[in-house]
Each structure stands twice: as C-alpha cells, then as structure tokens.
C-alpha cells in the first residue's frame, strides 16, 4: 500500500527551502522543503499511497526521497559565483 519515489531538487531549494511538486497516484501534491535539506532526506506524505482493496478509505503512505541535483554544465559566470559562495562559507 505504500509507494516509494525519488524527487530531484535543486541545490538552491535544498539550501534555502522552497515548494516542490510531487507526483502521486492522485495527481500532483505540493511539499514545502525545509531550508538545509540534505540529499537522501525521506519525507512521508500520509494517506497518499494506494488504497486497500477492502476499504477505499484506508490508504498507504507515499515516501519521497529528496535527491539534490548537482548541475553537470555551468557557465563561467555560474562557476565564479559558486566559487565566491564557497569562499564566503569558509
């Protein structure tokens, strides 16, 4: 009855927080990502899993693992901004 899925999020959303959309069996659901979320964080969407055959009012949960996506290609400007950010953090 439970469903498990992975949802990619950007580094900015992981660091700053923000709203993402998760595809469920009932359609899209909005979820508020907390600031400072790490890759591999698992959240539970209660009652968004598969309904039981005997009682449609009883449903499983949908477990979502948030995966921070690292950009594969960046412009020189983006790289420089990221270097400045890294320096500011150290």
Structure description:
With 90 residues, this protein is an alpha+beta fold. Helix content is 22%, strand content 39%. It contains two helices and five strands, in the order E-H-E-E-E-E-H. The strands form two sheets. It has a three-stranded mixed β-sheet with strand order 1-5-4. Strands 2-3 form a two-stranded antiparallel sheet. It is elongated, with a radius of gyration of 17 Å.
Question: What is the compact description of this entry?
Answer:
With 90 residues, the chain is of the alpha+beta class. The protein has helices spanning 11-16, 76-89, and strands at 3-10, 18-24, 27-33, 41-45, 62-69. A hairpin with a 2-residue loop joins strand 2 (18-24) and strand 3.
Strand content: 35-45%
Output the strand order for the largest sheet: 1-5-4
Query: Which series of helices and strands comes N to C?
Result: EHEEEEH
**Number of helical regions:** 2
| Class from helix and strand fractions | alpha+beta
Shape: elongated
Residue share in helix: 10-25%
The count of β-strands is 5
**Which whole number gives the mean pLDDT?**
94
Straight-line distance between termini:
46 Å
The radius of gyration is: 17 Å
């Amino acid at each position: 009855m439970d469903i498990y899925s992975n949802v990619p999020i950007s580094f900015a959303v992981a660091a700053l927080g923000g709203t993402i959309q998760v595809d469920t069996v009932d359609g899209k659901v909005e979820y508020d990502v907390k600031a400072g979320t790490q890759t591999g964080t698992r959240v539970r969407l209660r009652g968004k899993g598969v309904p039981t055959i005997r009682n449609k009012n009883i449903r499983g949960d949908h477990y979502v693992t948030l995966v921070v996506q690292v950009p594969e290609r960046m412009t020189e400007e983006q790289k420089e901004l990221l270097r400045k950010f890294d320096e500011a953090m150290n």
